[in-house]
Amino acid sequence: MRILSIASEVFPLIKTGGLADVAGALPFALAAHGCDVTTLVPGYPVVMKALQRVSDSIETIDLDTILDIPIRILATTLNGLRLFVLDAPELFDRLGGPYSDAGGHDFGDNWLRFAVLSKTGAAIAQGAIESYRPDIVHVHDWQAALAPVYLAASNRPRPRTVLTIHNLAFQGNYPSTIFPRLGLPDSTWSIEGVEYYGNVGFLKGGLHACDVVTTVSPTYADEIVTEGGGMGLDGLLRGRGERLIGIVNGIDTDVWNPETDTAIAANYTRRSLKARLHNKRAIEGEFGLRRENGPIFAVVSRLTWQKGLDLVAGICDDLVERGVRLVVVGTGEAMIEGAFFAAHSRHPDRIGVRIGYDETLSHRVQAGADAILIPSRFEPCGLTQLYGLRYGCIPIVAKVGGLADTVVDANYAAVTSEAATGLIFAEPSETDLLRAVDRTLRLYQDANVWRKLQSSAMKADVSWSKSAGLYAGLYRDLMKE
User: Fold this and answer.
1) How many angstroms separate the CA atoms of 363 and 423, rounded?
2) How much is the pTM?
């Protein structure tokens, strides 16, 4: 099966969050199930620079203009990924990140940038590249969600479409004044199309037009059809019925492998957990923490309200009082960043803070910290807890979305049967988070129990193997239709 994946970011070329990890890892897992995936990704400066390494193997395909923007497609294979790179300098050759400028402000023409990405994907799906026609088009989040709309509005034969929601909070809603520029027929300006309370809804339109909606965990699929979790789209999602499916994310277990990871101080397995101490000592030095035998807890995350990191900032003094040291890696809301900096200034040898995104540092923290705090208020899937499981860094998570689907709580029965892999708490509050911390510390005090907990965590299957099989089965079912 030929699968065209359309994504606004893909690891290791460009990454701001879990979407990139999924877009980068799933194609390799799908290959084992007979799926040949090619990913269409924008030609951001960092992507174009990476292409220089394989310049001799790039096929250039001129598609003239899409929505009056001159474009061409660069087809190649990079880091094992088959790629179509959308080369449109007018839209993507800019300083900053994929969605915002160097000052953190969203680009004012993001609607056009990602409409061009979507329409280009739709054109490729219908034969714009003579030698390529996919069986399935799989689009990711609002940035690619108009592709199914363009395809459904066409009179020409089209492949089946799958839209994956990675985070329903980001919907791509824009003023109605942009509609004439989208190149869509007037009939799509309707409640069954892209119109959304008088605005243009990229994600909303895609959810109507695609053949199947997936999201990144079964529990999140249940949550988003409720009024409290649907963020205004719950009615539409309920209407999709059995065409809304939750498939839990996996991770690339070759990239995230403590036995071979070159980013960490010492390699180890679940049978050689004593070697893990070298990684703990390394992050003590890296973050300027006092060297001692007590636990180190970690945060590796966007520092936002959604992720519940205001709760962690609020209990920093309580953690220190309990003998816990804390390392924080991430960037996000200024108030939360400031709260962590203030906690560091109060406890400079107990709390270490790094503001910014650092992929290799996140590997070192997962390998050296004893536990990782993930108190999200909502979490479609989450990958950080999967990295923690893989590295024996025990996840302490809120009972939401994919966190609830991927962590087995260390209650009495699970601990005694050696099935537990982490700790789950019910409510995203400082009180419940501290209770989970206290439970964790009681387990940590028994070295034998703690090692068994780490070993069980590292045995958990966090790979893409099972989920890729579910996606492949879904694709085949759609092709039969």
Assistant:
1) 21
2) 0.92
pLDDT digits (tens, 9 = 90+) for 91-133: 999 999 999 998 889 999 999 999 999 999 999 999 999 989 9
Query: Are residues 114 and 6 part of one domain?
Result: yes
Q: In what order do the strands lie in the sheet with 195-196?
A: 173-175, 199-201, 195-196
Cβ(462)–Cβ(381) below 8 Å:
no
Provide the edge-to-edge strand list for the sheet that holds 296-300.
Answer: 351-355, 325-330, 296-300, 371-374, 394-398, 423-425
Torsion of CA 66, 72, 75, 79, to 10 degrees: -90
For the chain, give the mean pLDDT: 96
Q: Tell the residue number behind the tokens 């005694």, with chain if given.
A: 416
**Distance of alpha carbon 149 from the chain centroid:** 24
Nearest C-alpha neighbor of 390 from the set 337, 461, 332: 461
Give how many domains the chain has, as a whole number: 2
Task: Tell me the per-residue pLDDT of 275-310, one tens digit each, with 9 for 90 and over.
Answer: 999 999 999 999 999 999 999 999 999 999 999 999
94 and 129 share one domain = yes
Token pair listed for 378: 């909502």
- Cβ 147 vs Cβ 139: under 8 Å: yes
Rounded distance, CA 355 to CA 305, Å?
A: 16
Instruction: For residue 451, tell me if it sits in a domain.
Output: yes
Asked if residue 82 belongs to a domain, the reply is yes
At position 19, the amino acid (one-letter code) is L
Element (H, E) at 402: helix 401-406
Range of the domain at 193: 2-250+465-480
Check if the beta carbon of residue 59 is closer than 8 Å to that of residue 15. no
C-alpha triplet 151, 152, 156: angle, nearest 5°: 65
Query: Does residue 333 form part of some domain?
Result: yes
Neighbouring-strand partners of residue 69: 66
Eight-class DSSP state of 188: G
The answer on 438 and 470 residing in a single domain is: no
How many whole angstroms from its chain centre is CA 236?
A: 23
Task: Give Cα 240 to chain centroid, integer Å.
Answer: 23
Asked if omega into 12 is within 30° of 0 (cis), the reply is: yes
Question: Same structural domain for residues 428 and 470?
Answer: no
**What is the distance between the alpha carbons of residues 300 and 319, in angstroms, rounded to a whole number?**
17
